[in-house]
Write a structure and sequence with these properties.
Length: 115
């Protein structure tokens, strides 16, 4: 079955950097679009960034210029490099993939706290 395992979260001071990783299994990673979502307490889940199977990327306006999504198909892993972190980036970050129009498979999340 589809498994997505995130890692790399932690606590960092404002202005710092973190790199999130998501290792995937149970599906053909090379052919799949991947995304990162986040949810802060009291807020709705927000799409942060996506990378398609052909490498095309999307970024939410709130992270554009600061975050970079990438993928390593040889390692079945997608990354989210987060620079110039702000307190408003504090959230639980989820990796996701889809087999249809919507992202319907999710990891367990990794916490990012920026102080």
């Amino acid at each position: 079955q589809v498994q997505l395992v995130e890692s790399g979260g932690g606590s960092v001071q404002a202005g710092g950097s973190l790199r999130l990783s998501c290792t995937a299994s149970g599906f053909t990673f090379d052919d799949s679009d991947m995304g990162w979502y986040r949810q802060a307490p009291g807020n709705e889940c927000e799409l942060v960034s996506t990378i398609s199977s052909d490498g095309s990327t999307y970024y939410a306006d709130s992270v554009k210029g600061r975050f970079t999504i990438s993928r390593d198909n040889a390692k079945n892993t997608v990354y989210l490099q987060m620079n110039s972190l702000k307190s408003e980036d504090t959230a639980l970050y989820y990796c996701a993939t889809r087999d249809g129009a919507a992202y319907n498979y999710w990891g367990q999340g990794t916490q990012v706290t920026v102080s």
